[in-house]
Amino acid sequence: MRKHQELSLDQIIEQLRADQLTSDDFCLYGKEDGELALARSYWVSNYPDVVEDRDICPADVAEQDLQLVYYGEQLIDVLSVALEEKLNASHQDLVEALNYYQQHDSFMKFES
């Protein structure tokens, strides 16, 4: 995943699927936290540095006054599990799985 760019969540999911969900060395940042949306844009950048048990966001994130929305590793894990359960999951299905994980700290089950 290329960093230091703004992409819609739809574009991010498409890129991650093209990369076969292997690149997790990134984080998503946004103007607000809360539920993810396909059409909403997110800034892709580096992981925050941890200094004295505090996350210090990368300079490009701090300059834009953005908040951490999702760690790349967690995002990849949630997408991978969702696609194992529902191979033909739509992008909207994947967004629902990501939001579910954020709210419940567990993976969403797809009905067969």
What are its keywords?
112 residues, 6 strands, four-stranded antiparallel β-sheet, globular, two-stranded antiparallel ribbon, DUF7716 domain-containing protein, 4 helices, alpha+beta
In short:
The protein is an alpha+beta fold and 112 residues long.
> What's the assembly state of these chains?
single chain
The average pLDDT score comes to 92
In what order do the strands lie side by side in the largest sheet? 1-3-2-6
The share of residues in helices is 25-40%
Radius of gyration: 14 Å
Number of strands: 6
The SSE order reads EHEEEEHEHH
Shape: globular
Helix count from the secondary structure assignment: 4
Class from helix and strand fractions = alpha+beta
Major sheet = 4 strands, antiparallel
Integer tally of domains: 1
Ends distance: 31 Å
Portion in beta strands: 15-25%
Spans of at least 5 consecutive residues whose pLDDT stays below 50 are: none
Organism: Streptococcus fermentans
Pfam families: DUF7716 (PF24832)
InterPro entries: DUF7716 (IPR056133)
Protein name: DUF7716 domain-containing protein
